[in-house]
Amino acid sequence: MERINIGVIGCGYWGPNLIRNFQALTDCQVQKISDINPERLSYIQKLYPEIDTTDQVDNIINDTAIDAVVIATPVHLHFELAQKSLQAGKHTLVEKPMASSVAECQKLVELAQQQKLVLMVGHTFIYAAAVRKIREIVASGDIGEIRYISARRLNLGVFQYDLNVVWDQASHDLSIILYLTQQMPLSVSCQGKAHITEGIEDVANLSLDFADGNFATIQNSWLHPSKAREMTIVGSRKMIIYDDTEPLAKVKIHDKRVETPPHYDTFADFKFSYNYGDSYAPYLKHVEPLKAQGQHFLDCIRHGTQPDSSGGEGLQVVQILEAATESLQNNGAKIQIEGLPKYTY
Q1: Which domains, from first to last, does the chain contain?
Q2: Alpha helices of the chain — where are they, by DSSP H?
């Protein structure tokens, strides 16, 4: 395949970052950009005068010179635009969350399979060097069995008008947790409150239960005085702290654990053993996650392979988000999650 030509739909908050990173890659070219806001189109045209702009989405969808479409619009438009793109024979990268419901996600996955096209979701964090390194460490067994995962993604804003903090922020943490554990949770419970906009929760806590007895917690907030992007993975042998706000040492491995005696005769003989070993930060080769994600999209198109953040993975994240929404509406009740098949292209 020659150079891959790309059309981008949406150049509001996130679109310009996608455009910049695709333009930095040598084996593709952004051919056309669409947005309904003339001011945003004018802004992008000044940055990239060589790229055509249009306020009509169909000018991208129907352009036979465009091989792949990138969708960076509000979530409620994801399904309609992704469906049009796939039906037109375009490989499609859609920002997270993939769609507004599991039913919509299933339709997109099935359509991509029928058309033999790459459908990818913008779960950007799983392309970060830090998360890749953690996956490598977990898979090696170096930290032992995962006992629990705790995530905190907090900030003052940015408030959304069409989705709550769970759909906006927890989707990042969920994609990372699924990537690290390689399994779906059995159930989810979620509690949250809407303080600023009625009906749109700006603070929430999620809890996920897994079949192997492990669990994960996720705390999200748009009402926090400082920025936090932290995840702790506690293993039976070692512990990992991933802090995305750290400029260099984003991943730290701590040789810490608690051990119980194999047997004891009396309660007086029972003693916990605490191990306080060394801590270290592994070397990470910095590559902008969005650039790595874009290259992965191109590679999957060229080789006909399934993305790490495939439509199937996007569907699973939305399934958890739907269950979390049901739990929110039922005062934090535990909602069972039905298993989904692994989709392959």
Answers
A1: 4-125+289-309 (3.40.50.720), 129-287+320-336 (3.30.360.10)
A2: 15-24, 38-47, 58-61, 78-87, 102-115, 129-140, 165, 171-181, 289-303, 311-329
